[in-house]
Every structure is written in C-alpha cells, then in structure tokens.
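re: the backbone from monday

yeah here it is again, tokenized this time
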C-alpha cells in the first residue's frame, strides 16, 4: 500500500490505518508495520508549543491477533526528536520524541453497541469496531506526551543561564562578574541539592507525635501553649510515649487536720472579717445608747 500524503506532508501515511481483513489474508500474524512520521506532521502536532521540528521520525510496530480477531496487541516504538528552548539560557535543547508503545485493542462487545462512550478497563486498553484499527490517534498522542515540562541545553545542570542584569549568556564566560555589564550577582541562584533533601524521619512513635504537634503549629498560640505546660501524661493512643522527665508526685493531705496553708490564713481571714471587733463595737454602741437614755441627774440644792 502506497503512502498518499498531501504535498505539505501534514498527514500520516495510510499504513497506520490497519485493514484487518487484508492482514488476515496475508497470514496468521504477527504483522510488522513500518511508517514514516513526516517533519511537517510533527510540527503540526506540536504547533501550540515552542518546539522546533527539523527532521522526520519513524515508527515500527508489531500487530499480533489474539483469539479469532476479538482483540489485537500492538507493540513497538517511535523514533524522532525536536528541540525546545532551554529552561535557563533559552538555547535549543534536544528532546526525544521516541518511546515504547504497548496497547491492547479489544473489539466492542454486543452489549456495548448502544452506548455512546465505552469505558476501558485500563489506559493501555482501547476498543475498536468493524474491520479497521486506526493507529494514527495513538501515534499523535505519544508525540504530544513526549513534550517536556522542563528541558536543559547541552550543558545540563551546569548551565549558568542568562545574566540577571543585562541578559547575556553566561555559559561562555569565565566564572565571576558578567563580562557584558560587570554585574557581580549575574547568575540566577539555583537551589542546592542539599536544601532539597528530605528531613530525617522520627525513629519512634513518641517522636513522631511530637513532630506532628510541632508541624501543626502548637506553641504559636498563647492559650495552646499554656495548656501544654500542664500536660504531664502520655498521649492517648501511644503506649510507648516517653516525655523525657518524671512528673512531680501530687501532695498527700494530712490526716491530723487541714493543710498548713489554710490554718495560717485563717486568723487573717477572721481579723479581716472583723467578728470580734464587731462584738466590741456593738457592745460600745449598746452602752452608749443606754447612757444616752438615762435621765439627767437632779442637782442638789
């Protein structure tokens, strides 16, 4: 079968649209499928990105029928590539569009014929109907998935990027100030690998509990911190909790009477209440009232 692509090459060859009847006539299988991926087609697929395609790609696939044409296993690979701007210096960074393909095509069941959308069991399983399997959407999807989130040029992680002051490329310059503008802090700071290391995990359950309290912000609120100062027991649900100190024993009440603190404060409270003073003042008041009621004494003549 000859490839009938348009003059601009923005379509895939028809070899990727499998005619299952023609394949069955050629033998029991498996069937080898090879096709070219034109550069204009790849550029059209990646048109909404900043990718630049300069060469064509290719694909090699093996189609294996399973059962009596009820399903087909498609395995193979894609070769090709393009370039995108480096994430640091904007120089062309090579990206591989190649990858492995392994997809199981299952014929639609009779019960699912009335459904508009049939859910597949897994991402590597797809359905088909009739006597044809079109692999072109699969190839298009694989090329789109190859687009990277971040790519670096040939310098890799050693790429110094552009000057923060004037935008000059620093890769070709010696270490130190920017040769173009003389800026000392020309290079964009890059996080060190040591800063990205995960902290050590707690070695015991009580350390994990304390770390969880610290991560939740306990101690930032005054009321929460005051409540924590009174805590001297184990955390509920943690049997092997070790607070690191022994709690103080509670005072034992005396059997002879009231605690010394209350007895010492009792006289002060009585004096403050003024009960004896009230009696004396009351007595004076009564005597004063009696004396005021006595009749005046008669003067002797």
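seq for it, each position gets an aa:
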């Amino acid at each position: 079968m000859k490839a009938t692509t348009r003059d601009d090459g923005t379509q895939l060859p028809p070899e990727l649209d499998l005619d299952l009847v023609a394949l069955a006539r050629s033998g029991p299988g498996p069937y080898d499928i090879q096709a070219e991926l034109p550069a204009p087609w790849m550029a059209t697929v990646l048109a909404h990105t900043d990718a630049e395609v300069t060469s064509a790609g290719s694909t090699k696939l093996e189609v294996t029928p399973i059962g009596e044409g009820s399903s087909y296993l498609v395995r193979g690979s894609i070769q090709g590539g393009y370039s995108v701007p480096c994430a640091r210096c904007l120089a062309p960074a090579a990206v591989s569009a190649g990858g492995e393909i392994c997809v199981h095509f299952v014929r639609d069941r009779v019960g699912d014929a009335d459904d508009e959308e049939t859910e597949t069991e897994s991402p590597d399983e797809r359905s088909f109907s009739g006597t044809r399997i079109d692999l072109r959407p699969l190839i298009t999807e694989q090329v789109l998935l190859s687009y990277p989130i971040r790519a670096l040029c040939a310098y890799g992680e050693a790429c110094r990027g552009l000057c923060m002051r004037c935008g000059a490329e620093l890769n070709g310059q010696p270490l130190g100030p920017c040769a173009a503008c003389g800026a000392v802090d020309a290079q964009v700071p890059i996080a060190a690998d040591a800063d990205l290391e995960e902290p050590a995990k707690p070695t015991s359950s009580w350390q994990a509990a304390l770390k969880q309290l610290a991560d939740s912000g306990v101690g930032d609120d005054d009321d929460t911190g005051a409540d924590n100062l009174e805590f001297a027991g184990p955390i509920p649900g943690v049997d092997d909790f070790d607070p690191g100190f022994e709690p103080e024993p509670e005072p034992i009440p005396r059997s002879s009477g009231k605690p010394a603190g209350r007895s010492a404060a009792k006289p002060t409270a009585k004096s403050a209440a003024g009960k004896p003073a009230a009696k004396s003042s009351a007595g004076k008041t009564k005597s004063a009232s009696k004396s005021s009621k006595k009749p005046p004494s008669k003067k002797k003549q």
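The helical segments are 20-26, 39-45, 136-145, 205-215, 222-229, 260-273, 275-293. Strands lie at 17-19, 31-37, 57-66, 71-79, 81-85, 92-96, 99-107, 125-128, 132-134.
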